[in-house]
Write a structure and sequence with these properties.
There is one protein chain. This protein is mostly beta strands. The chain folds into 3 domains: 31 residues; 143 residues, 6 Propeller (Neuraminidase); 74 residues. It has 3 helices and 27 strands. The chain has a 7-stranded antiparallel sheet, with no helix packed on it. A hairpin with a 2-residue loop joins strand 8 and strand 9. It is globular and about 45 Å long.
Length: 334
């Protein structure tokens, strides 16, 4: 065989193998299926902006020192590296991809905040193979199983909840209201109604029907895996409460006026802005309440090891503290 022809055939075979590898990877990334009960991030994190998300000992986060660009690090904060320059909020993840709302850096919540957002996207863990689900403004999204539920703002019609599969099919409206999500529980999605009566509602993904679950005003509600519903109660000057639907028991966690809160395990972090402004840590049962940082903070995020938070008036700085042992507040610089 001619040497040149042999070399050409070898080159073509190598190219074919390489091309086949990337084609297979491409379709694996696009066609993988999550377990039906997979949840992309905790509702506590998502209700506080969703700027940190932990999965498989990796933490994906919006780096405040780099215009909220998407980074990844180990859960012990080692080996931090940049994934994409896109400014992100509402981060979700599964074994193959990272899902997020693309947004310029901005403070605040509500409709004005939503209008500053710029769409819903995903990329693989290496920062490649971007998928766009919508270019409409999206402030909060939730990955549940293989479906993305997201706050979809449409000009002249307002914000409602849409759902789209991770492979970008069946995009449709599921809740014709502006709501905030709580953790899916026993196959259902619970949410706080922000449009009408502020009650807790339940959505069934199978029947695509919603109904009132608890006729009680709630703000930032989360139906936790421990069987309690945690919420800020507007009827008691925004105290932090929890309610057990099985025993119909309601407990006060703190009688202070709470602005934001986050929970990890049995630990709750909450922010107080009136009186003596401070970020507190308290046990879910209401005991051992201590101040961990004086001042006003927001964007409270938790991972398995740390709590992260930002000064209310400076979103370019992030602080952190370990959940366990002696509390030591330090600036988090990845």
């Amino acid at each position: 065989m001619n040497k040149n022809l042999k070399a050409l055939l070898i080159t073509l075979c190598v190219l074919l193998v390489i091309t086949s590898f990337f084609v297979v990877r491409f379709f694996i990334d696009k066609s993988h299926l999550n377990p039906d009960d997979h949840v992309g991030n905790s509702a506590y994190n998502l209700n506080n902006g969703g700027k940190f998300c932990e999965i498989n000992d990796k933490v994906y986060f919006a780096n405040s020192y780099d215009s909220d660009a998407l980074y990844v690090m180990n859960s012990d904060e080692t080996n931090a590296k940049k994934i994409t320059s896109t400014s992100v909020v509402s981060i979700n993840a599964d074994d193959h991809r990272i899902y997020y709302s693309m947004s310029p850096k901005s403070n605040g919540q509500g409709l004005g905040y939503i209008r500053k957002s710029a769409g819903l996207y995903s990329i693989n863990h290496s920062g490649r193979d971007s998928i766009c689900y919508t270019t409409n403004p999206v402030a909060q999204c939730l990955l549940y199983g293989n479906t993305l539920y997201y706050q979809n703002y449409i000009k002249n019609s307002g914000t409602s909840i849409y759902a789209i599969t991770t492979d970008r099919n069946n995009n449709h409206e599921v809740i014709n209201q502006f709501v905030t999500f709580t953790n899916p529980y026993w196959g259902y999605i619970y949410y706080g109604n922000m449009s009408d009566n502020h009650y807790l509602y339940i959505y069934d993904p199978l029947t695509m029907q919603s109904e009132s679950y608890w006729s009680h005003d709630v703000y930032m509600p989360v139906y936790d895996s421990d069987g309690w519903i945690y919420f800020i109660d507007p009827n008691t000057d925004y105290e932090l409460h929890r309610y057990n639907p099985q025993s119909e028991t309601e407990e006060i966690i703190t009688d202070q006026r709470v602005d934001f809160y986050n929970k990890i395990g049995d630990i709750i972090y909450y922010q107080v802005s009136v009186g003596d402004p401070a970020l507190h840590r308290v046990m879910a049962s209401g005991g051992d309440d201590i101040v961990i940082a004086e001042g006003v903070y927001n964007d409270i995020q938790t991972t398995s090891n740390y709590v992260y938070f930002r000064p209310f008036d400076n979103d370019t700085v992030t602080y952190h503290a370990n959940h366990y042992g002696t509390l030591k507040i330090e600036e988090f610089r990845p």
